[in-house]
Each structure stands twice: as structure tokens, then as C-alpha cells.
Specification:
Strand content of chain A: 15-25%
Largest sheet of chain A: 7 strands, mixed
Number of domains of chain A: 2
Radius of gyration of chain B: 14 Å
Shape of chain B: globular
Largest sheet of chain B: 4 strands, mixed
CATH class of chain B: Alpha Beta
Distance between the termini of chain B: 29 Å
Structural class of chain A: alpha/beta
CATH class of the largest domain in chain A: Alpha Beta
Strand content of chain B: 15-25%
Distance between the termini of chain A: 31 Å
CATH architecture of chain B: Alpha-Beta Complex
Strand order of the largest sheet of chain B: 3-2-1-4
Bound molecules: pyridoxal-5'-phosphate
Oligomer: heterodimer
Helix content of chain B: 40-55%
Number of strands of chain B: 4
Shape of chain A: globular
Order of helices and strands of chain B: HHEEEHHHHE
Chain lengths: ~425, ~150
């Protein structure tokens, strides 16, 4: 059977599926086939339990109480920071700042690192495949400072054009801010080269790692990136929480992003002294339950054979590419040599939105639209695509269901 | 599949594949643009309105089957109607798609085929985009409308 030959023997997907309660339900009378993992993934029982445990047993504010619950809450909260430090291989827990997610992390880099430094005519290099959250903060910054954006083009496979990038770099380049992995196309960017070239001209590198962390280990020290931004909810953790990694010397030199409680050492009307790292950047009561759930997601990924899970995802991508690509009138967008398990396509017979509605009737969840990456859509001359994105718990059987769903689409629109 | 066929009625599929009144209208005296950011639908409407009557109407743009068919049927229906009649039709259509009351299918005529969209809340905006754009064109405030 296809299913068996395609799945790596060391990886038991059915066992993984048991960890995710939400997968076991019906939608419109059909078993749920959840293929919208790039938007947000489902959460394992361990993450849900960690959050529940916090609210049921340890709920208190962090860093400010001498009582037992506050100490427990603080311990779990700071424990999660330690987990994230190890997950990204940061050199110190001071380099992990908890924020709402990738979007907030990129805005922090723009406002706190770039804004005080950039001068009119300074250049920021982005790529054409960026999510809007790695475009708009820089447009705002350019308005504030007079800096200008330079955009690295994509080739017809949706790959970052390294040669064109090198030509864009120059002595005015202050920052390169790129995605590690494209959410719309799945392309993996050649970060090692991007970072080396940027550093050669003295520019810093910020990376939107939202779509990278669910699909493989990331080592910020090996990559030598200056900033790395992630969201918990795309890597099996809760929504509304994420973190910024930044090199300590950069964080030290940056002014706070927001003012408030927790980020201060002392406050007087004559002047305020800021707290040490990373608290200088964590104003106000944080999303404590979210951070604890985020830590639990890191633990969960450490508890499974992650390498085998990624191999499984890659075999899903290959299978899905064959199945969808062989349907008449389908054009796949994003055929990079190096990509993660994201498949984007358009169909001659049906608009993506219609495809999404029909698949939903079959219990299949896919994303349709521009995926917050309109410049990518423009590059390929389409207003929208259908996107199926696969996680560690998807199965080859679900891909067959997807193919049958697309057959329905063809029937309705034939 | 029965549900899906309610939404994608033959008439809708037909209009979406070969939309009527599709193209630009050079001497239009009323214009409006509509967007549905959720799915990237985009629609430009041009009308010639004389003595309070819609003499000609055309649309252009890219959209899903529902929004294209809705624009196609709409442009067919409003030609030759007074602005007042158009507004009444528009109200009846929006009531059909978004209202709670039992729709008056007789009054709606051809528009009744869109009743299926009621059951698909995320598709309501697709069905109503053309009509909202038409309202803007008749007000002629030149503002782009968006369904968000
Ligand atoms: C590549 C990429 N960057 C940034 C984001 C924004 O993440 P968040 O909404 O969690 O801040 C997303 C997710 O939508 C994404 O896919």
C-alpha cells in the first residue's frame, strides 16, 4: 500500500495523532482533515494541560509576589524562557524576550533597534516573499526615518535570488530582514549566505522564523543571525505568544519598546532606571499562561522524534505535490528545491475561494487567499491561491481525501 | 454534495464562466471599485446614468464564482431601471443574503438563486460585493468600497 511505503518506519503518525484532541472530530459529517497548519497548528494535550494546570493550580502574577503561587508561576514562566533558549540555542536566557508573536517581535526590532539608528537614505533589504508583518513595520519605519526599502526578487520557482541580493547590498545597507521560510510558497531561504553577505557590508540581519521553527531545528548561534522572531502557535503552542531572540549586546544598546510595570528597576519622577535584560522589553503583566504553554510545546517537540517527523512531512509534501500536480488545469506555485511542507496552487476551473468552500464541505481545511503575502501573489500574477500546509500529524490517507475533494471541485465546475 | 449544489446553482456557474456585461465602459459617468480583502476579489463598476435611469452598466475584475456571477446577474437586472428601482432591488438582495426574514422569492426573481449563500457565512461578502459597489457608484462618492 502506498501509505506504508511512503511513511518512514520509525515514525508512528497514528500515535502522534492521539496527542491532538482537536483532530478527532467530524466537520460536515466527514472526518476533519486539517491542512491549514501554516496558519496555525493544532495543540497537543500536553500544551492544553500545561495551560489548564497553570489556571487551576498556579495562577498568580510573576516576578512580584513572595507568596507560593507567585513563586510557582514565576518558576514556570522563567522555566519556559530556559526552554526557548535551548530550543533556539541562544547563548543566554537574557536574549529571549517574550512578546505576542512574530509580528510584535518584528515591530520591536523596527522601533527599538532601527528607529533610533537609521538616517535618511539608509537602506533596509527585504525579499519579495515576505509576510505583510515583515513589510509594513519597515514601511512605517521608513516614513519615520527617511530610510528606504530594497526588495530582493524571486525566480520562477519562488526562490530568493541570491545574486540580485548581493547586488542590492551596499554601504548604505543597515539591515536585512527576511523570512527563513515563506508562508505562501514554502521556500527555504539560504540564510547562511544571506547572513554572511550582510555582515560583510556591516548590516544586521533580522529573521522572520515563524514558518521555520515548526519544520526543523534552528540554531541562532550557528546561523549568526542578529534577530530571530517566532510565534508559538505555528509550532503546536498557544496563540498570542512568541518570542524575539536578539544578541545580547544589541538588546543592551536598545531603548525599551514600551514603558510600564516589570520593565523598570526604579521609577522616580526625576527619572526611571530600566530593568535588566530581558525584562526591559517585557512591560506589563505578560501572557503567563501563553508562555507556559509555549514552553510545553517546546517540550512536546523534544519528546517526539522530530527528525523523523520532518522526514514524514517531507514525504507528505512529495506525495501531495504528485497528487495535486497531476490534476488537469492545476498550476503549483512555489517549486523551490529547498522547501517545507507547504503546497500552494491555483486551478483553471475554480477560484481558490470556491475550492476552499467545496473542500470544507468535505471536512478538509485549507487556506485560500493571498496569505498576507500580496507581493508574492503579484509576482506570480494571481490574486490568491489554495494552500495546503502539512504538520507532523497529517497522513497520506488525508492527502487522498484532498485529491478526492479536488475531484469534487472539478465536477462542480466542469 | 446537496449543500454545495445549493450554493453553486447552475445559473451561478453559468454566469461565472461567461459573465455578462464584462468589460470597460468608456463613457461611464458613475464609477466605483470594490474589494474583498479576504479572498482578493476586486471589482470595477462603470455606469451611464441619465435622467435618473441606468442606461448602461459594465464590470471588470477578478473574483470567485459567487462574486462574478453576482456581478453578472446584477448588471443584467439593473439596466434600464430607475435609480429608485435599483435601490429597492439592492435592498431586497441584501435582505435575502444577510437578513433573517423569509425572503420574498417572487420579488427577487432571478436573484433568488443566490439564496444558498445564506448558509455559507464566509461567502456572504462574495455575493454582496457587486451590490455594495453599485450602491457606492450611485452615490458616486468615488470611494473604494471594501467588504471588511
Ligand atoms: C512568515 C510569517 N511571518 C509572520 C507571521 C505573523 O505571525 P503572528 O501572526 O503570529 O505574529 C506569519 C503568520 O501568519 C507568517 O507566516
Amino acid at each position: 500500500m502506498k501509505t506504508e511505503t511512503r511513511t518512514s518506519s520509525s515514525f508512528d503518525v497514528e500515535k502522534i495523532r492521539l496527542d491532538f484532541p482537536a483532530l478527532h472530530q467530524e466537520v460536515h459529517g466527514k472526518p476533519l482533515v486539517y491542512l491549514d497548519n501554516a496558519a496555525t497548528s493544532q495543540k497537543p494535550r500536553a500544551v492544553i494541560d500545561a495551560i489548564t494546570h497553570f489556571y487551576e493550580r498556579d495562577c498568580a502574577n510573576v516576578h512580584r509576589g513572595v507568596h507560593t503561587l507567585s513563586m510557582r508561576a514565576t518558576e514556570s514562566y522563567e522555566g519556559a524562557r530556559e526552554k526557548l533558549k535551548r530550543f533556539l540555542n541562544a547563548s543566554s536566557r537574557k536574549e529571549i524576550v517574550f512578546l505576542r508573536g512574530t509580528t510584535e517581535a518584528l515591530n520591536l526590532v523596527a522601533q527599538s533597534w532601527a528607529r533610533p539608528r537609521l538616517k535618511p537614505g539608509d537602506e533596509i533589504v527585504l525579499s519579495r516573499l515576505e509576510h505583510h508583518s515583515n513589510i509594513v513595520p519597515w514601511q512605517i519605519l521608513c516614513e519615520q526615518t527617511g530610510a528606504v526599502l530594497k526588495v530582493v526578487p524571486l525566480n520562477e520557482h519562488g526562490e530568493f535570488e541570491l545574486e540580485a541580493y548581493r547586488e542590492l547590498l551596499g554601504e548604505r545597507t543597515r539591515l536585512v530582514s527576511v523570512a527563513h521560510v515563506s508562508n505562501a510558497l514554502g521556500s527555504i531561504l539560504p540564510l547562511e549566505q544571506i547572513v554572511a553577505d550582510a555582515h560583510r557590508v556591516g548590516a544586521k540581519v533580522a529573521v522572520d522564523g515563524a514558518q521555520a521553527v515548526p519544520h526543523g531545528p534552528v540554531d541562532v548561534q550557528a546561523l549568526d543571525v542578529d534577530f530571530y522572531c517566532i510565534s508559538s502557535h505555528k509550532m503546536y503552542g498557544p496563540t498570542g505568544i512568541g518570542c524575539l531572540y536578539a544578541k545580547q549586546e544589541l538588546l543592551e544598546a536598545m531603548p525599551p519598546y514600551q514603558g510600564g510595570g516589570d520593565m523598570i528597576a526604579s521609577v522616580r519622577f526625576e527619572g526611571t532606571t530600566y530593568n535588566e535584560l530581558p525584562y526591559k522589553f517585557e512591560a506589563g503583566t505578560p501572557n503567563i499562561a501563553g508562555v507556559i504553554g509555549f514552553g510545553a510545546a517546546v517540550d512536546y517537540l523534544a519528546s517526539i522524534d522530530f527528525a523523523a517527523a520532518i522526514e514524514h512531512e517531507n514525504s507528505l509534501l512529495e506525495h501531495a505535490t504528485d497528487l495535486v500536480g497531476s490534476l488537469p488545469g492545476v498550476r503549483i506555485l512555489g517549486t523551490a528545491e529547498h522547501k517545507v511542507s507547504v503546497l500552494s496552487w491555483v486551478m483553471q476551473s475554480a477560484h481558490p475561494h470556491d475550492v476552499g468552500t467545496i473542500l470544507d464541505q468535505e471536512g478538509i481545511a485549507v487556506r485560500t487567499g493571498h496569505h498576507c503575502a500580496q507581493p508574492v501573489m503579484e509576482r506570480f500574477g494571481v490574486p490568491a491561491t489554495v494552500r495546503a500546509s502539512f504538520g507532523i500529524y497529517n497522513t497520506h490517507g488525508e492527502l487522498e481525501a484532498l485529491a478526492r475533494g479536488l475531484e469534487q471541485v472539478r465536477k462542480v465546475f466542469s | 454534495m446537496s449543500d454545495i449544489r445549493e450554493l453553486y446553482q447552475e445559473v451561478i456557474l453559468h454566469h461565472s464562466k461567461s459573465p455578462r456585461n464584462f468589460g470597460s465602459l468608456d463613457d461611464a459617468n458613475r464609477h466605483a471599485e470594490g474589494h474583498n480583502p479576504l479572498c482578493g476579489d476586486q471589482l470595477t463598476l462603470g455606469l451611464i446614468v441619465e435622467d435618473g435611469t441606468v442606461r448602461e452598466v459594465r464590470f471588470q475584475g477578478e473574483g470567485c464564482a459567487i462574486s462574478t456571477a453576482s456581478a453578472s446577474v446584477m448588471t443584467d437586472l439593473v439596466r434600464g431601471k430607475s435609480e429608485q428601482e435599483v435601490r429597492a432591488l439592492s435592498d431586497a438582495f441584501l435582505e435575502l443574503i444577510t437578513g433573517d426574514a423569509e425572503p420574498d422569492l417572487d420579488a427577487l426573481g432571478k436573484l433568488a438563486v443566490f439564496a444558498g449563500a445564506r448558509e455559507f457565512p464566509v461567502r456572504v461578502k462574495c455575493a454582496t460585493l457587486a451590490w455594495r459597489t453599485l450602491e457606492a457608484a450611485l452615490q458616486n462618492d468615488g470611494q473604494a468600497v471594501t467588504t471588511e
